[in-house]
Amino acid sequence: MAPAIACHGLCLGMMLVCMAHALKLDTFAGQAEAKLLLEAIVDQPEVQQRKMVVQAHQDEEEDYTCSESKPCKLGCCGPLDDTGAGVCGMGPDFCGDGCTSGCHWKSECDPGWGSEWSNTTTCLLNVCCSEFGFCGTTQGFCGGKTVPNPECPVSAKSASKKLIGYYEGWNHQRPCGNMEPEDIPLGYYTHIFFSFALMDPDTFRMDVMDEGTASRYGRVTALKEKDPELEVWIAVWGWAMNDPGPYRTVFSDMAKGEANQDKWFDSLISMMQNYGFDGVDLDWEYPVAEDRGGIEEDFASYVNLLRRLRERLNQEGRPYGVTLTLGLNLLWRNNINPERVVTGLGFYGRSFTMKDPSCMAAGCEFLEGAGEGECTGTAGVLSAAEISKIIDAGADVTLDETAAVKIVTWDSDQWVSWDDEETLKMKLEYAHQRCLGGTMVWAIDLDDGTLISSLGKASGRAKKQIITPRPWVECFKGDW
């Protein structure tokens, strides 16, 4: 298996941010890598291109030349000079007449050389397209049109207002490390998002993952009786639903037709009313992305879907909520109030088997995912509870201050990044500084109670002491 790069911050919930060494924004590869550094990843083909840049330039700096025997790692090898050397790049100057190799490459966006040479005309969310054909938000991409970060008093601690926890409704299927609804620690969370409900590919009506998951809907919403300030929402879809299979295009198929949208709205509202859900979280991963089953029409369809869903929910006479879960960079140019945005945190870690046991730092190469966890049973992913046990057994732990993440290494070649009390505080402070409206964690049931206690403490939230009343017959036992 070919080696890849172990990157910083891989436990940041929905976000996957890889950091490169010695970035130089005035170079072609630097522009490409800056996009990877600055934006959250949505697994599209362009992301794989940027990963290749990281790997290609891990051990060499500013070598963007090519030849007949040396193709570009990213981009087209342009016309060769008298010495037989060329330069890597995008657009007609490199990929057009005289192109030596890799002539199929297209840029991420069109800086003016036409759709023949680019994947899209403009960048998503109207971010800047650099002269090299990559999307971004900083001066290297926008020139003088930089976008200022929002400002607010840090003392306001805006990110403490909401603490959203996703609950994996299928966690009962794990052999250990389970959490039943009644075991969810109350008081910390302002919202619980029950994950996931599905959609029938033929009728576009709401569907369940399995009976065990469905049997827990009402048990989770019943927690509001013990914690009246809590809201419980239903999260729809999820990453796996856009894997190859019968569900892959269902969201696109539903969203592009208003008649199909109406079928889904009716079913969704019925489900929310039957079980007492307070809102819906749409976890479509990802609209438009071809490698995730998306189509170009998703861009317009999703906007129309959300507008019509909001209008329909408003007709129900109660304030149902709607949220989106996407791994996107937070962009203020569209006048999005940062208090309506929450940052994602992970109660799990991405783990790797490293290529060279003598190179265990962030940026070193890895071969594959680390060994499966006892309870999670998936190579490359470990729950917070599993990581805690590894640390207790004597693993080495270091702090990466740049990424605000802890790196845990053990058994000579095993590596995982994760958050503990120290790094959760660092990320919460970061969210305060950017005026965000809260935090969310994936997932409640991956923690043994340690991390949520730390995050709750940093957010000024404490576990509720729930007193379960004894049956009335018990109250009158004994002598009168």
TrEMBL record:
<keyword id="KW-0624">Polysaccharide degradation</keyword>
<protein>
    <recommendedName>
        <fullName>chitinase</fullName>
        <ecNumber>3.2.1.14</ecNumber>
    </recommendedName>
</protein>
<keyword id="KW-0146">Chitin degradation</keyword>
<keyword id="KW-0378">Hydrolase</keyword>
<dbReference type="GO" id="GO:0006032">
    <property type="term" value="P:chitin catabolic process"/>
</dbReference>
<comment type="similarity">
    <text>Belongs to the glycosyl hydrolase 18 family. Chitinase class V subfamily.</text>
</comment>
<dbReference type="Pfam" id="PF00704">
    <property type="entry name" value="Glyco_hydro_18"/>
</dbReference>
<keyword id="KW-0732">Signal</keyword>
<feature type="signal peptide">
    <location>
        <begin position="1"/>
        <end position="22"/>
    </location>
</feature>
<keyword id="KW-0964">Secreted</keyword>
<dbReference type="InterPro" id="IPR001002">
    <property type="entry name" value="Chitin-bd_1"/>
</dbReference>
<keyword id="KW-0147">Chitin-binding</keyword>
<dbReference type="InterPro" id="IPR017853">
    <property type="entry name" value="GH"/>
</dbReference>
<keyword id="KW-0326">Glycosidase</keyword>
<dbReference type="Pfam" id="PF00187">
    <property type="entry name" value="Chitin_bind_1"/>
</dbReference>
<keyword id="KW-0119">Carbohydrate metabolism</keyword>
<dbReference type="InterPro" id="IPR001579">
    <property type="entry name" value="Glyco_hydro_18_chit_AS"/>
</dbReference>
<dbReference type="GO" id="GO:0005576">
    <property type="term" value="C:extracellular region"/>
</dbReference>
<dbReference type="InterPro" id="IPR018371">
    <property type="entry name" value="Chitin-binding_1_CS"/>
</dbReference>
<dbReference type="GO" id="GO:0008843">
    <property type="term" value="F:endochitinase activity"/>
</dbReference>
<dbReference type="GO" id="GO:0000272">
    <property type="term" value="P:polysaccharide catabolic process"/>
</dbReference>
<dbReference type="GO" id="GO:0008061">
    <property type="term" value="F:chitin binding"/>
</dbReference>
<dbReference type="InterPro" id="IPR001223">
    <property type="entry name" value="Glyco_hydro18_cat"/>
</dbReference>
<dbReference type="InterPro" id="IPR011583">
    <property type="entry name" value="Chitinase_II/V-like_cat"/>
</dbReference>
<dbReference type="InterPro" id="IPR029070">
    <property type="entry name" value="Chitinase_insertion_sf"/>
</dbReference>
<dbReference type="InterPro" id="IPR050314">
    <property type="entry name" value="Glycosyl_Hydrlase_18"/>
</dbReference>
<dbReference type="InterPro" id="IPR036861">
    <property type="entry name" value="Endochitinase-like_sf"/>
</dbReference>
<feature type="domain" description="GH18">
    <location>
        <begin position="161"/>
        <end position="462"/>
    </location>
</feature>
